[in-house]
């Protein structure tokens, strides 16, 4: 290339011309980096929006010709230039270089300023109505539930640094998709958008209403705009409401429709779209974006008779230093000349670890392979929900984790059969031990047989009949359990800590004819409940050395019979495939011992027992993630059933209990501060004492809220539901937790010591001596702590 004329920098304020030199590749990298990232080289406020930087190799040339190693840099401010502008600029540059003047047609007389004036004069009413309809009921302020590694920080704490992962589709994948797109008359752009929506649907565990920011890099929607150099970009929402049962082709048609329709109104500025929702302060859909960039990759550019080789800007750039305002984006680049399709995933390092982004890119490529296979094998009718994000190495790990089959030590599969088998092997070994009491296997079998025969001969139980038992921890508990099983009945435990009202309701629900008790629990039941005292039954047979066990051999049970029932709750939802490692999903449990279902509640059973590949699974409702070591990490509950101090609690049951009080019109119970249940009630005619007394008479201790907050009106969201985020935070002071208007102080030395220990463990200043331990966050582990402290303080070990 030859220098035509000199340049006087002082005569121009719109652009600048710079000459410099380099001798090493590192120096050239530094110059290129400065041109790309130094914001002071251009000044939009002063109109300095273009610069030409000529970098000579080793020294400034005194001749008018450039050498092969010289570098020519054209640097444009982004507000002036978009990608298609480059082709027009090079065309005009070549024309000016070869002819010394530019040729104009009618369209080239239009300037970028004319376009701005035309846009301001356009009628926008049709576009405004379209976008209002397209985004109706769309939750624009709710971010997509991507697998973030960190919570979003406030703006002042964000670095805005991103990491980028790039990869090619490959010729085989691209060939498959191109054939499918052309045979169905679908643009490749729409096909890539459809793939991205499928991927996000799987990545976000089945979210079906997806709204992204679509970056339009060549928004020259009118012919007269196609020859104007300038920035013709816009960002528009692209909303896809998909059906998980759609096949790939159905989703593709839907994406083609929404994309085509949205492009008709792509001239509507993003600012106008946002103004239609003034109540939204943060438009979260802008945090996830997608774009498609077709381009012609010319290896050479001809300027006159000179051949210029465009330089690559991948100059040892640290990808984690790039800046972006988007949390997560996918850019697809299509080389029209080479027929190559590549993708680039950008993700914010404020929210993601680079390892997470690398895995996401692997999962995206895995989805591509599955879709390609479905196209090639003509399986495009396969529902998209059947696609999987679980990578091959993760599938192997899942298979290893679920390979839990074990061989039993005996040919027997029923509990009491296995028990008898152990008695025959170790008759004199210790079977049960509690404090100073113990039983050998042989002794335990004798007592179990005595109780079983009593149930069969005197109470005429039949196999499958439910028998309740309400006993404290004791030898009688074990005898009762095995006695019920040996009689062929179904064991149902009742907690002695439950109030009479609840115990009666549970017995009625099981339709049990009687309850096994012992000396500590026989007073829990009124005369209308038949209570069979285990201790009395055994004492009445103490003189019998030989018992007739023939009747027991006639009791027929098999491994599929129900062994026990317990009172708990299930969860709801739609079964899905294995979740990927690190992805939050619901835990399913299968294999030997899956429970038979809910008693007389086929509707609940159908919700929680799911058949997958011919095997029965119980859906726990627990949300967990799995790491690379196979460890499960508990994330929370899918419903409002929670675990508190090892106890599973259905919050809805507490709420129903409170709502049975006539003066309460609304109620919500929440777990707060990890240790406390807090009940918010809507009432104008109640008090905390009444609420607590009602709960104590209807609920077990671990389900009684620590704090009751009475409000005249519970806050509601726009949908008319209780807005839990607006509920006032509870006061966990000692006065509120002890729930006493008057604190009763300790009197003697022992009470003072116990009071001090309690205050230290519960981190409270004062605790009334009549406080119930469970109302201030006590649980089994705290009781063990107290016991340990008591042994030290009161020298109990001696």
From TrEMBL:
It comes from Adineta steineri. It comes from the Eukaryota. Gene3D superfamilies: 3.30.300.30, 3.40.50.980, ACP-like (1.10.1200.10), Chloramphenicol acetyltransferase-like domain (3.30.559.10), N-terminal domain of ligase-like (3.40.50.12780), Nonribosomal peptide synthetase, condensation domain (3.30.559.30). The keyword Protein biosynthesis does not apply. Residues 745-798 form the Carrier domain. SUPFAM superfamilies: Acetyl-CoA synthetase-like, ACP-like, CoA-dependent acyltransferases. GO terms for cellular component: cytoplasm. Pfam families: AMP-binding, AMP-binding_C, Condensation. This is Carrier domain-containing protein. GO terms for biological process: amino acid activation for nonribosomal peptide biosynthetic process; secondary metabolite biosynthetic process. Keywords: Phosphopantetheine, Phosphoprotein. One of its GO terms (molecular function) is catalytic activity.
């Amino acid at each position: 290339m030859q220098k035509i004329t000199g340049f006087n920098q002082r005569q121009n304020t719109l652009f600048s011309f710079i000459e410099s030199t380099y001798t090493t590749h590192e120096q050239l990298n530094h110059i290129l980096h400065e041109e790309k990232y130094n914001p002071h080289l251009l000044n939009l406020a002063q109109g300095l929006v273009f610069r030409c930087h000529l970098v000579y190799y080793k020294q400034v040339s005194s001749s008018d010709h450039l050498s092969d190693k010289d570098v020519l840099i054209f640097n444009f401010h982004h507000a002036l230039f978009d990608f298609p502008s480059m082709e027009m600029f090079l065309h005009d540059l070549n024309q000016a270089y070869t002819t010394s003047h530019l040729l104009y047609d009618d369209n080239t007389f239009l300037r970028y300023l004319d376009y701005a004036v035309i846009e301001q004069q356009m009628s926008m009413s049709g576009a405004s109505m379209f976008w209002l309809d397209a985004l109706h009921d769309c939750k624009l302020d709710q971010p997509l539930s991507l697998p973030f590694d960190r919570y979003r920080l406030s703006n002042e704490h964000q670095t805005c640094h991103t990491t980028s992962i790039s990869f090619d589709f490959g010729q085989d994948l691209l060939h498959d998709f191109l054939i499918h797109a052309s045979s169905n008359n679908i643009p490749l752009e729409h096909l890539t958008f459809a793939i991205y929506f499928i991927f996000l649907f799987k990545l976000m565990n089945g979210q079906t209403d997806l709204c992204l920011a679509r970056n339009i890099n060549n928004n020259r929607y009118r012919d007269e705009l196609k020859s104007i150099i300038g920035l013709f970009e816009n960002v528009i929402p692209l909303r896809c409401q998909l059906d998980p049962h759609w096949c790939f082709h159905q989703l593709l048609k839907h994406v083609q429709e929404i994309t085509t329709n949205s492009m008709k109104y792509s001239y509507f500025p993003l600012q106008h779209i946002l103004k239609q929702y003034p109540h939204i302060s943060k438009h979260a859909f802008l945090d996830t974006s997608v774009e498609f960039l077709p381009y012609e990759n010319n290896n050479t550019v001809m300027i006159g008779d000179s051949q210029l080789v465009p330089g690559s800007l991948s100059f040892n750039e640290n990808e984690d230093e790039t800046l972006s305002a988007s949390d997560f984006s996918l850019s697809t680049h299509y080389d029209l000349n080479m027929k190559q399709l590549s993708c680039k995933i950008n993700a914010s390092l404020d929210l993601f670890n680079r390892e997470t982004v690398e895995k996401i890119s692997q999962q995206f490529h895995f989805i591509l392979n599955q879709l390609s296979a479905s196209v090639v094998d003509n399986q495009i009718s396969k529902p998209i929900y059947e696609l999987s994000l679980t990578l091959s190495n993760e599938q192997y790990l899942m298979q290893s984790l679920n390979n839990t089959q074990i061989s039993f030590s005996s040919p027997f599969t029923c509990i009491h059969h296995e028990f008898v088998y152990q008695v025959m092997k170790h008759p004199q070994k210790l079977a049960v031990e509690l404090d100073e009491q113990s039983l050998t296997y042989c002794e335990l079998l004798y007592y179990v047989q005595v109780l079983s025969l009593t149930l069969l001969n005197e109470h005429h139980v039949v196999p499958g009949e439910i028998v309740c038992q309400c006993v404290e921890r004791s030898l009688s508990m074990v005898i009762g359990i095995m006695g019920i099983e040996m009689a062929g009945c179904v064991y149902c435990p009742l907690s002695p800590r439950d109030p009479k009202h609840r115990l009666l309701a549970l017995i009625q629900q099981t339709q049990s004819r009687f309850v096994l008790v012992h000396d500590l629990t026989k007073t829990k039941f009124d005369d209308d409940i038949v209570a069979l005292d285990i201790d009395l039954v055994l004492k009445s047979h103490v003189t019998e050395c030989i018992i007739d066990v023939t009747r027991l051999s006639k009791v027929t049970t098999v491994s599929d019979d129900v062994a026990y029932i317990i009172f708990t709750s299930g969860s709801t939802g739609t079964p899905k495939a294995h979740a990927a490692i690190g992805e939050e999903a619901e835990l399913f449990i299968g294999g030997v011992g899956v429970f038979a279902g809910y008693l007389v509640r086929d509707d609940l059973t159908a919700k929680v027992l799911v058949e997958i590949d011919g095997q029965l699974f119980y859906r726990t409702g627990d949300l967990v993630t799995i790491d690379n070591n196979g460890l499960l990490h508990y994330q929370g509950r899918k419903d409002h059933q929670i675990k508190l101090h090892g106890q599973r609690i259905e919050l809805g049951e507490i709420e129903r209990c409170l709502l049975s009080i006539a003066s309460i019109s609304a109620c919500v119970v929440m777990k707060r501060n990890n240790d406390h249940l807090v009940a918010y009630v809507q009432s104008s005619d109640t008090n905390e004492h009444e609420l607590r007394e009602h709960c104590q008479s209807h609920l077990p201790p671990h389900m009684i809220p620590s704090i009751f907050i009475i409000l005249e009106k519970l806050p509601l969201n726009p949908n008319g539901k209780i807005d839990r985020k607006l509920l006032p935070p509870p006061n966990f002071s000692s006065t509120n937790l002890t729930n006493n208007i008057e604190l009763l102080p300790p009197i003697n030395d022992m009470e003072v010591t116990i009071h001090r220990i309690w205050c230290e463990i519960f981190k409270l200043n004062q605790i009334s001596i009549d406080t119930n331990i469970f109302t201030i966050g006590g649980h089994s582990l705290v009781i063990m702590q107290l016991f340990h402290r008591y042994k030290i303080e009161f020298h109990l070990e001696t």
